[in-house]
Each structure stands twice: as C-alpha cells, then as structure tokens.
Write a structure and sequence with these properties.
By secondary structure, the chain is α/β, with parallel strands linked by helices. Helices cover 34% and strands 28% of the residues. The protein is built from ten helices and 16 strands. α1 packs across α10, α2 runs antiparallel to α4 and α4 packs across α10. The chain is elongated.
Length: 389
C-alpha cells in the first residue's frame, strides 16, 4: 500500500486549504453551522454517506468489505471566544472568535483521513465512522453527540481521537497508557449573609468575609485531605460579591472547576468541599447553596488498545518519534466516548520554534506548524486500517 505518510503528503495542499478555511471562519460551541455545512459538503464530494447529528454534529460512514468492526474516528470542531493576534495570513475573520486550540486542524485532518480511506475501501473489512463533534470547549459536545445516537446505527466498537499541541514538537506523537488528561467538573457556591450599612457591620452578616475564609480553606483539601499521590486541583475561578462600597455584602457567588485523575477521588471532592463550606458558614453566621456538576471524566488509555495504536503510529513516523509526557491537568470530553465503548487518544506535536509556533493552547498568538497535518492525517488513516484488519 506504500507509506501512509507519503499518501497524506500527496493531499497536504488540499488539507491545508480546508484548515485555513476553518481558521478564517471560527465558530463557538454549538454554533458551528458554517463549519458543519462545509464538512458535509466535502464528505459528500468524496461519495461518503453523511448525516447530521444534533444541530451541528456530523457523522460520515465509509463502508469497506462485509464483516469487521465499526471504528470511530473523532475530531472536535469548535473555536474559542478569543481575539486573534497572530501574523498568519488566514487569521480569523469573525471578531472575538479564534481557533486557539487547534480544532480547525482536527477537522481538516479527519477530512484528509476520510479522503484517503474512501479510496481504500477494498483494503479493509468493516466501517469507518467519522465523527465531527461540536462543543468540546464547553465540555458538553461529546455527551450531546452520544445522546443523539452518534455511537449507534451502526454501533461503534472502538473510537480513536487526537489533539494537536503547540508546545509539543512537530513530527512527534504521544501514545501512552493510563490516565492522560484529568476530569473536569464545575461548581457554583452562593454564600448568603445579611446586608446592612457599611458603617455598622454588626447589624448584618458579611458574606464577603465568609467567602474569603472559604476560598482559603478549600486549598487545605488539596494539601491536607486528599492523598498527595493522586493529584487534584480545586480552582476558584470567579468571585462576585457585594452591592456598593458602603454596604456590607449580603451575597457572594463563587464559581470554579476541579480536576482529578482518580474516579474515586473525583467523587469524594464535592463532599469534602461541602464539609468545609458548611463549617465556615456556620461559624460566620451565613447560609449557602452549593451545586456541583460532574462534567467531563478522566481521559485514559487501556494497555491493549494503546499497544495497537502505538504500532500504527510507529509505522507512520517511526518508534523514535513517539513521545511520553506528564499527565495533563486539562480535560477533554473524548473521555465521554470511553465511558461507552473502547477508546484511545493521542497527542500530535504542532510546535516549531523556527516558525514561531511556540504558544500554548488558548493563547491569542496560538499557531501550528502546518507540516504536522500530514502526520495527523496519516496516523488517523493508518490506525483505521490496522484496527479494521
């Protein structure tokens, strides 16, 4: 069949054209109307069976020979509310919105893999299910796709995904066993005191002072309650309290997001938090409401599937170009598919200091070395062929 990377390089200009088009026209979570329409058009041009899933999700089916499994390949397609400040000639044309996390490359690479695989249907048994997913940045897109039936009809046996990173070197791919990205869960806390004139604080109950004590005490969960060998993050992201400079605050609203690599620890965190919140509120004379949302699970790779992914990637770029990295505290809703079926996730290097591609995800300067796209296309396509053997 020849080297898959060579095949990917043959269509590289077309893949770059798709990527740059997506980059010029970024769309926020669950609003990817133009993006999904373009994806459907390109898949249709390849003769691939296409259907919409939800408002902006897209699924394509490439059917090989009879028999075999159904393999899912997933790419997320949404952008971020970031104002782009890069020097690329194809910068965002949508004010205040930018593909600052590389999802434009994901969509383009999966289209590239579709282009290769649709021409190889006589070389594999089974079905490739192409899943273009909205709203990864909201942590809700994978669940929405699952609820809308993306993993059914036909049922997906194995699903693979990847994420490009601007701080990993171009030409390298991370394939490793075990927890790869943390869970991500959100929470909201209202601390309710009693408003009064700021000159007479004894006539009220100051919610601000109580909230400050809670913020400080929550970090003792990380350092003194949790097993330090199983790291967690408890992040207080926003604090909004008080009405005016000369009024004692009657209410404070706090919002945050927590991370963990252990499901057992993840499930304990809200109980630990509420114990602290309740005790401090009682001490300060405040009431409270506390809401916790288990949003995104841990992204993890099981041993057998990882071994197979590694073999596929090694055949594309060589074993010496497969990296291992420290676990990331960031979250990825690909994990929701892994709760339903077998799934494997990879990281793709997109950084290149010589080209100025050195910025982290979500930066307004974020850039990718586009030579990485051929590698991603080849890894998607080769893994599909190997898993369908």
């Amino acid at each position: 069949m020849g080297n898959m990377l060579d095949k990917a390089k043959e269509i590289q200009d077309w893949v770059l054209e798709q990527r740059r088009d997506f980059h010029r026209h970024p769309e926020l979570s669950f609003k990817e109307y133009r993006t999904s329409q373009r994806i459907k058009e390109e898949l249709g041009n390849m003769g691939i069976e296409v259907k919409s899933v939800g408002e902006t999700g897209v699924v394509g089916l490439i059917k090989g020979k009879e028999g075999g499994i159904v393999l899912g390949l997933r790419a997320d397609i949404d952008a971020l509310p970031v104002t782009e400040d890069s020097d690329v000639p194809f910068a965002s044309e949508n004010a205040g919105i930018m593909h600052a996390c590389g999802h434009d490359t994901h969509a383009a690479m999966l289209l590239g893999a579709a282009k290769l695989l649709s021409g190889m249907k006589d070389q594999f048994k089974g079905t490739v299910k192409l899943i273009f997913q909205p709203a990864e940045e909201a942590g809700a897109g994978a669940k929405a796709m699952i609820d809308a039936g993306a993993l059914k009809d036909p049922a997906v046996d194995v699903i693979l995904g990847m994420h490009i990173f601007g701080d990993l070197p171009q030409g390298k791919v991370v394939v490793q066993e075990g927890p790869l990205m943390a869970s991500g869960d959100t929470w909201t806390l209202e601390v309710i005191g009693k408003q009064c004139h700021g000159s007479a604080p004894w006539q009220g109950v100051d919610a601000n002072v109580c909230a400050v004590a809670i913020v400080q005490a929550l970090q003792t969960i990380v350092s003194r309650v949790n097993d330090a060998r199983l790291p967690i993050v408890i992040n207080v992201g926003t604090i909004h309290g008080g009405e005016r400079f000369n009024i004692t605050s009657g209410k404070v609203t706090l919002e945050g997001m927590n991370r963990a690599f252990s499901q057992e620890v993840r499930e304990k965190i809200p109980g630990w938090m509420e114990r602290v919140i309740k005790g401090i509120c009682e001490a300060y004379g405040c009431e409270y409401t506390f809401k916790y949302n288990f949003l995104v699970a841990v992204t993890t790779n099981e041993a057998g599937l990882t071994k197979k992914m590694r073999e596929s990637v090694a055949s594309v770029i060589g074993e010496e170009n497969i990296m291992q990295v420290e676990k990331l505290m960031g979250s990825e809703d690909f994990s929701e598919y892994q709760l339903i079926t077998k799934g494997g996730f990879m990281f793709l290097g997109g950084g290149n200091e010589e080209k100025g591609c050195v910025y982290p995800q979500h930066s307004n300067h974020f850039k990718i070395d586009e030579d990485a796209l051929a590698v991603g296309v080849a890894c998607y396509a080769q893994a599909a062929l190997d898993f369908l053997k």
